[in-house]
Every structure is written in C-alpha cells, then in structure tokens.
Amino acid sequence: MTDFTMKTDADGVATITWDTLGKSMNVMNQQGYLDLDALIDQALADDAVKGVIITSGKPGSFAGGMDLNIIATMKEAAGDDPARGLMDGLMACHRILRKIERAGQDPKTNKGGKPIACCLPGTALGIGLEIPLACHRIFAADNPKAKIGLPEIMVGIFPGMGGTTRLVRKMGAMAASPFLLEGKLSDPKKAKAAGIVDEVVAPDELHAKAKEWVLSSPKITKPWDEKGYKMPGGAPYHPAGFMTFVGASAMVNGKTQGVYPAAKALLSAVYEGAMVDFDTALRIEARWFTNVLMNPSSSAMIRSLFINKEALEKGAVRPEVEDQKVRKLGVIGAGMMGAGIALVSAQAGIEVVLIDAAQDAADRGKAYSETYLDKGMKRGKVTAEKKAAVLAQITATTDYAALAGCDLVVEAVFEDPTVKAEVTAKVEAAVGPDCIFATNTSTLPISQLAKASGAPEQFIGIHFFSPVEKMLLVEIIKGKATGDRAVAKALDYVRQIRKTPIVVNDARFFYANRCIIPYINEGLRMVAEGVAPALIENAAKLVGMPLGPLQLVDETSIDLGVKIAKATRAAMGDAYPDGAVDEVLFWMADEGRLGRKSNAGFYSYDDKGKRGGLWEGLGPKFPLAEAQPDVTEVQHRLLFAQVLEAVRALEEGVLMDIREGDVGAILGWGFAPWSGGPFSWLDMVGTPWAADTCDRLTETYGPRFTTPALLQEMADKGQSFYHRFGGEKSAA
User: Fold this and answer.
1) 409 in helix, strand or coil?
2) Which tens digits make up the pLDDT trace of 692-720?
3) For 630-684, how does the pLDDT look when each residue is reduced to its tens digit (9 = 90+)?
4) Residues whose CB is less than 8 angstroms from the CB of residue 336 and which lie 6 or more positions away in sequence, other chains included
5) Cis peptide before 467 (omega within 30 of 0)
6) Nearest residue to 31 via CA among 70, 61, 5, 75
7) Which of 122, 269, 619, 643 could disulfide-link to 60, CB 3.0 to 4.6 Å?
8) Helix 69-77 vs helix 82-102: crossing angle, to nearest 10
C-alpha cells in the first residue's frame, strides 16, 4: 500500500493523489518521498503524459506537514555520524523537489519539460507547502477555513525542505519574513494576495482549472533558473537588500535574545543563500537545517511543542471510559474568567448557560463575547453569521433552573471556599445526577472544596489561565475522590474548546502556580537584596522567559500576590519561607502600586496604560548593593526556582507525566520555550551538573535550593528524565 497513486486521463494529464493511510490529514513519511519520486520519474518518462497535477485525497486539506520520525531515521542512517545522515537525507529530499521543479527541462536551454501544477483543497502546512512551492503553479480552493503557511519556527526548526530558499526567491526577504520568522498562516485569498499561491478557485473547479493550465503549454521555468534573475527587494550586496538584512538581523536578535537557534540559522541560510546560485542555496539551507536539528534545543522544542503537545491533546492520559463530549455547559460567575469560558465554549458549538447573581452582571458576561466577536469582524476573522451563531449559544441568566440538562458545570466565582460551597449546593440541586461539577480555581485544594458536594467522585478542578481565549493551557486537577468519568469529561471538554490539557493531582497551587510563584518570589527577593531591578528583568528575558518576574507580578496584580502570600502564611505557619518577599510585596501594595490595573507597579505606566520603564521609587526603598551578581548567577536563581518545584511536583506525585510537566510549563507560564520545558532543560544540562549547582546555590542562598531527593538520585546514577520516565533511548 502506498500514500501516493497516479492516474493518467485521456488528455494526457497525470494526477498524482496524496492520501496518507490511516490519517485525517496527509503527513509526509520516508516511504512517501520514495513513492512520490518514483511517480514523478514515471510521469516524466512517459511520452503520453503532457503534464502533472499533484493533489490530495483528503477532503478539505492538502497536507499537515512532515512525520518527524523521518529526522530520527536520517540520523540513524549514517551510524555514528548523525549529522552526515541528516545532510544526506535532506539533500535526497531536495533532489526530489528539484526534479519536480525542473520537470525534465534541458539544463542549458531551459527548453522542454512538463508543467506540474499543485491543487490545494485546503490546509497546506510545512512540507505541505514546500512541495507546492516546487511546482510550477499553485491552485488553492476558496476554502476560508484553510490555513496555508510554514509554521516550523514555532516548534524550534525552520522550513528546511526548500521552503526557505524558494519563498525568499519568490517574494523577497522582507515580504517572506512574517511567514518564515513568525510562522504566519493565511487563508487562501490572503496567501494569493501575499504571492504564495497563484490562483484561488471554487472548490469544485480546482482540478479542472489546474488541468486547463497544464494543457495550455505554459512557461514553466522558475525565475531563479532564468539568466539575469534578481531577487525581489534586492540581494544582500544590493543597497536595498543590505538594509533589509541589517534590519532582519536586529529584529531576530531583539525578539529571540539569541536563545532560539532556529531563527538565527534561518536568517543565515537566507543571507548566505541569496548570494549564490539556487542549487548552492539549497545546499546551504540543508547545512543550516542540519545544524539546527543537531542542536538539543530544537530537539527539545520539537518533542514538547509538537510530539508531546499533540499526544496530550489526543488523550494520552485519558481514562478508558466512554465518550464524554459536552453538549450543554453551565458557567457560574460572569466575570472576566467566566465570560472567557463561555466565549470559547460557545465558539466550539457548545450550548452555554452563563449565570451570575445579578442579571446585569450576567449580561455583561455575554457582552464580553460580543465585544470579542466585533473585534474579530473588524479584522475580517469573523462573519456576521458566525457572530450571531456564537451569541445564540449563550443564555445569560440568574436562574439556576436553566442548568437543567447540563452535563458539565464550571464554577468561576471568587476564590472563597464559603462562596464556592454555596454555589456547589445550588448547582447540584438544579442539575441531573450525572452532571460533572468543575471548579475553576488557581489555589484552593480540590479535595477540600469537594466536601461541599454530594457526589465528590463527580467533582474536579479545571484551572483556566487568563485571558481564557488566548491561553492554550488548561490544568485539570484530580481531588482524592475524583473519578475517571470526571477526568474524561474534563479532558474531552478541553479538547472540544481546542486547548491543551494537563492532569495533575491535588496539592496547594497544583502545578503551574506552584512553579511560577517561586520565580516571582526569587525576583522580589533579589530586589530586597539590592540586586538591580533592570538586571533581574533582563537576565530573565536573556534566558528565554517572556516576562521578567517584576513585570509578571505587575501583570497578575500585586494585591493578588499579597492575598496569596497571606493565605500561604496562614496555612504553613512557621514553615512559611517567603518573609523577605513579603517585605517588598506588602510595601508596594501599601504604596498603592498594584500593577498594570492601577497604572502603577514595579513599572511606570502612562495614562493609557502603556508600560514605560522600571519605577524609580524602588531605589530609595531598596538601594542597590555595591557588588552586583553576574547575569548567569541571576539566571540560575530564576531558573532553578521554577525547575526544582517541577521536580518536587513529580517526586510527590502531583505531576504524573513529565510530558505534562514540560508542555504545561511552556504553555502555562512561558517557561523558556527554547529549552523544551523544565525536565527537558535538566536533561540538556545534565542531572549531575544540576545537582552540583543546587548545592552551590543552597550554600549561598539557603535551603529553598536544596536538591530534591529524586534529582540527587538521578544525578548519582547519571540518569536523564526522558530516559527514566519518558521511555527514550537517550537523554534528548
């Protein structure tokens, strides 16, 4: 059986159909390349074939990308020289696409050859766009749901099968940069406007239009294979092109802080490739792609942001119970969190009952969705029909009787156990006996809250991150009595709303907040010690954190930090470890500097809420120490504050799967994505080095950096986390 088949019609047009077996969307695998190569050879050698159309057998899509197992296969092909195996494998793929591009033309005169068109019935991503770019004309169906682009940069690599070189030569470096450096995706009409695809036609005319073009004896030589070709926008040695590359280099380094190898490698491949002929440029691209694939950062990002993320979304940790798809959802509390939950649920086609104590509050919660959809309409992302359909799914009311028929209720009221207990009782009196009850909480123990329920096995925690419509992660928390059906219901619901779930066991702060609070606290502790706030913030960003700890506490609000600190101190008593942190946090709150929401925090803000520089008032209260630590020391403190909590969460059974630990860290609070997550980072630096560093930090800064027993044991044995817990042959 093969993923590619070919059929030639009476007019001499051969149609090669790509249909990956057992997949909802085409994915390129090792055998697929060989099959495609053989069929192209067959078509070019057959005198009866006048031209070729490459299309998909999947309705509504062309291809979703490449099976990343190909990379491992290439590495293994050369035995002890994986880089050689990658380079040879990549060049073999380049030869296939180059064969499509040249299509039998005379290498000296560019005469002859057979036209090859590509038909995109829908989504075309990664290699699913790189193959079309090698064809002579790209026809895309007018399918507004389709996404066309090269998103590889988002998972730590770049388009390395010719997409980088071809897109830049087709569009110019400046025009291609959003699609290459940001992974921008477009619908077919926008892809045509950008110059990525050539024609957008009605879906039922797709094949006919391509065939008409193939039979029209078109000119098929690509511009870069013609004499005198000049790159759009100018090559690097052209004045305009020079300025483009100077600006691009500054932009890449400004956005990545130098910690994402793929972005720098991509820019290098484009810059160097633009100064040579096309075939040499492909070889340069392959060399830089090999360089990236051999970098442990890229391997970790691929594993966490592609393989593990996809596995979790498909139910890798789901209990084996029957389908628990949500049909009617109740949301209690129409504040920002509840309103966001109602919005994403209605967008997923779920009927939503949004309840608040007052009707005007419930109406404001529904209006949140309307405002969001109106913004989407202005950007052309939402139609009037879509807006009406989503709003029709939401019923805003004060009447708990409206919850009848709900199979899941999510409570999103104040973080107060008494209030939550009252809501639990009201909900259970209104719904059927099989309804699952979920509490949205970021700090309160689920097992304690479940005591207010008459059916604790149907009580579960679902922790959304704010703003709900933007944040990809949802943390599902199992109480001591939570049953499998409740877990399955939560997972199926999260999948419906197109978020990524992690499942953790009940404990104070669960997993995400447990790790992010020490990060914030370490930053505050350094302020109290006299470490320059600018050094703290920039050290964090230079190690790949999206926000420094001081900016992060501004965003989440300083008074919330005070509430959490007081509650934690009350719960822990003499064991409470963060008194030095409270000195800074409580003083800021007393000064009325509550963060962005008050336009005053560790940073200064203008009247419109735009963030400026760090607040100068910190200096008089917390004067700078004469001796400042180096950047690396600050980075180690900030990273280990988070990483050690992740290890402790695994050690204590709060975290049950290291995949969830890594994916949750990146999506939940932005833990240095280049690292692949805390466990991937520990594998990257090695557990022996990590344990030794913990010992040094403990000696200098105190017991919060004490090496967890699990980490020490693994260091003594020279183990890695993905070898021990992830079933991998090697550490990365």
Assistant:
1) strand
2) 999 999 999 999 999 999 999 999 999 99
3) 999 999 999 999 999 999 999 999 999 999 999 999 999 999 999 999 999 999 9
4) 368, 466, 467
5) yes
6) 70
7) 122
8) 110
From residue 88, how far is each of 39, 95, 159, 244, 563 by CA, in Å?
Answer: 22, 11, 17, 32, 58
Mean pLDDT of 466-486: 95
- DSSP secondary-structure letter at 308? I
Mean pLDDT of 318-322: 94
pTM of the model: 0.86
Sign of the Cα pseudo-torsion (36, 37, 39, 43, in order)? positive
CA dihedral 454, 460, 466, 467 (to 10 degrees): -80
Q: Which two tokens stand for residue 55?
A: 């299309």
CB distance 218 to 137 below 8 Å: yes
Q: Which residues pair with 460 in a beta bridge?
A: 438
First to last CA, the chain: 33
- Looking at 543-677, list the stretches that DSSP marks H as alpha helix, in order from N- to C-terminal side: 549-556, 558-572, 579-590, 618-621, 631-651, 658-669
Smallest CA-to-CA distance from 177 within 236, 248, 250, 273 is with 248
Query: What tokens appear for 432 in the block?
Result: 């059927």
Q: 461 and 479 in contact (C-beta within 8 Å)?
A: yes
Name, in order, each residue with C-beta under 8 angstroms of 499's C-beta and a sequence gap of 6 or more.
344, 471, 472, 473, 474
Q: In this structure, are residues 260 and 156 in contact, taking their beta carbons and an 8 Å threshold?
A: yes
Q: CA triplet 100, 103, 108: central angle to 5 degrees? A: 125
Can you give the length of the chain in residues? 732
| Contact in structure between 150 and 125 (CB atoms under 8 Å) | yes
Q: Which residues contact 108 (CB under 8 A, 6 or more apart)?
A: none
Instruction: Please name the residues in contact with 463: beta carbons below 8 A apart, sequence gap of 6 or more.
Output: 440, 441, 442, 474, 475, 476, 477, 510, 512
* CA-based nearest residue to 183, from 17, 15, 65: 65
CB 405 within 8 Å of CB 328? yes
Residue 138 per-residue DSSP state: E
Residue with tokens 């199979």: 407
Compute the C-alpha angle 271/274/280, nearest 5°. Answer: 110
- What tokens were used for 369? 């969705």
Residues 340/469, Cβ–Cβ less than 8 Å: yes
Tell which residue, 7, 20, 16, 97, has the closest CA to residue 63: 20
Q: Which of 40, 15, 18 lies closest to 29, judged by CA?
A: 18
AA letter at 552: L
What is the torsional sign of CA 658, 663, 669, 674?
Answer: positive
Tokens of 702: 């105190």
What is residue 732's predicted lDDT score, i.e. its pLDDT? 33
Q: pLDDT at residue 173 above 70?
A: yes
Question: Which residues touch 44 (CB under 8 Å, ≥6 apart)?
Answer: 99, 103, 104, 114
How far apart CA 422 and CA 56 sit, in angstroms, is 55
The Cα–Cα gap between 482 and 319 comes to 12
The predicted pLDDT at position 2 comes to 66
Write out 9-65 in H/E/C secondary structure: CCCCEEEEEECCCCCCCCEECHHHHHHHHHHHHHHHHCCCCCEEEEEECCCCEEECE
CA distance 264 to 269: 9
**pLDDT band at 354; cut points 50, 70, 90:** very high
The secondary structure of 442-466 as a DSSP string is SSS-HHHHGGG-S-GGGEEEEEE-S
